[in-house]
Amino acid sequence: MASRQGGSGDAEPLGPGSTERRTVSTTAAGRQADARPRSPPESPARRRARAGRSGSTGRTGEYRSIDPPHGGEAAARAPEDPPVRDPGRYALTDHFRERLEQPGRYVSTRTVSDAIREGQLRWNSTDGWRFALVEGGVRFVVVVSDTETNSPVVVTGWTEVADREDALEASRWDGVDVDTIAVRAALSESASTPIPDRIRPRTVTRPFEVGEHRLETEPGEPFVRCTDCGCRFRSKEGITSRRCGQRSPGR
What we know:
By secondary structure, the chain is an alpha+beta fold. The protein has helices at 26-34, 44-51, 94-100, 109-118, 164-169, 175-189, 196-199, 236-240; strands at residues 91-92, 120-124, 128-135, 138-145, 153-161, 204-210, 213-217, 224-226, 232-233.
């Protein structure tokens, strides 16, 4: 079964430009001009209570549906207001664009659009609003920013194994895909912590990229190994703190 690593998907593009070049869309401008006067916004404390936000900083946890009132449009928005669900309003940061090209990310513009439209929302005190959508046993997480402006952005995104059995049964994944997602997520959960026991049972024969390294692992190995330089790693911090001796600066 072919892997779906990397790639930008085949759905409609999100908003044009990156954080370095983004403009207010004519649609957003029209909506702003037509907005009717509204009563003064409620206090931030009341918004937080109504939205039922969590202060969790981890990548795991339950995601709940939190939708903005009146279809998400307001005369004045604040960072605490739930973001709009129109993918066309969002630009992509250069950081996220680079991730779309990397093997093993499994994030595309299509999955980002689907998560923004249909995913559940969660407030995270570290990086703000997240959309999360589970498809085929895998959770796609999309982090957005500048949601109080007319030019919100997609900052980053990643995948997690939500249900391993469902993921292995889904036609879009094979075992290597599922193990790749599991290993990458485990490495990111606590970058400085070695995780040999979470790497050992996994099989990753199609290298995925972290930092400058292309990584794989075989069952029983308590480490991931760079296919280019041969270095072995048990934590993400070890991977990102060491340059790959076999890769040229432009690669």
